[in-house]
Specification:
By secondary structure, the protein is of the alpha/beta class. The chain has helices at 3-25, 42-50, 61-71, 93-96, 109-128, 151-155, 171-180, 199-216, 231-236, 246-249; strands spanning 32-36, 55-58, 81-84, 100-106, 137-142, 184-190, 222-224, 241-244. An 8-stranded parallel sheet has the order 7-6-5-4-3-2-1-8.
Length: 256
């Protein structure tokens, strides 16, 4: 089986899982599938685009920026939306805003400031070069669902845990900062189910957090949750965006 047919078969299996989970949950809307292409080549990105994938995700800027540049002139990839889903250093903001439609890992005020500043510079660059302006950057606040997280860690420039994310207490302030930024849009929340914990309970908690956020920001209705191993409970609890890698692309290449 050639690579594109392999990807088509795997993608269809994931879409069938999603459809079954949507049906079981009683929902009438299907979440956006983001295929995370970490460690896979740009040729796979193009192959995915050719079989109908419209959203791809990356969690390292160096890899993401290279793939985005490599596929920029490929007509198959012209409608792709790039999502940055990993922990992001503030000094990478200028690079990320050149290709990413959304960042799913907003977890501290300094990153919000860096991204808004980078977006302003990117819009100016485009204007100077006679290019169309880009849309505002969609921002998801990443919430740390591990009970060991602390607001102090979330407020600093470091990351509050292995999987990152802001403590619940920091979410209102981060939301306010994103909402008041000139070049950023508050999309909603994102989380990764804590290791060793029940994802159903974790995503239930995230749904409550998302509901509280929507009370103040009705437009911030996106919930980025669920990966290959736990997309069903994420869908059950209202995920609007799923981040799936290995179940579509297969085992990650050995980079040693």
């Amino acid at each position: 089986m050639d690579r594109q047919n392999e990807l088509r078969t795997r993608l269809q299996a994931v879409r069938e899982r999603i459809a079954a989970a949507v049906d079981a949950s009683g929902r009438d809307d299907e979440p956006t599938l983001i295929v995370v292409t970490k460690f896979f080549p740009a040729t796979d990105v193009a192959a995915l685009a050719e079989i109908g994938v419209r959203d791809v995700g990356e969690n390292r800027d160096q890899e993401a920026s290279a793939k985005a540049a490599e596929t920029a002139d490929d007509p198959r990839c012209s409608s792709l939306r790039w999502h940055f889903v990993g922990q992001l250093q503030s000094n990478k903001a200028k690079s990320v805003v050149r290709y990413a439609a959304a960042v799913h890992s907003i977890d501290r005020g300094s990153l919000i400031k860096a991204l808004d500043k980078a977006m302003a510079a990117e819009q100016q660059r485009r204007s100077d070069e006679g290019l169309d302006p880009r849309a505002n950057l969609q921002c998801f606040i990443q919430v740390n669902l591990d009970t060991g997280g602390t607001g102090e860690e979330a407020a600093g420039d470091g990351h509050p845990g292995e999987r990152g994310g802001a403590d619940l207490a920091a979410v209102p302030d981060l939301a306010s900062r994103v909402d008041s930024a000139g070049h950023l849009d508050l999309a909603g929340v994102m989380a990764v189910a804590p290791l060793g914990q029940d994802p159903d309970a974790a995503f239930g908690a995230l749904a409550e957090i998302a509901g509280q956020l929507r009370q103040q920001y009705p437009h911030a209705n996106a919930v980025s949750a669920g990966m290959s191993s736990d997309l069903e409970p994420a869908i059950k609890h209202g995920a609007t965006h799923l981040r799936v890698g290995s179940n579509v692309l297969g085992q990650r290449p050995d980079l040693r």
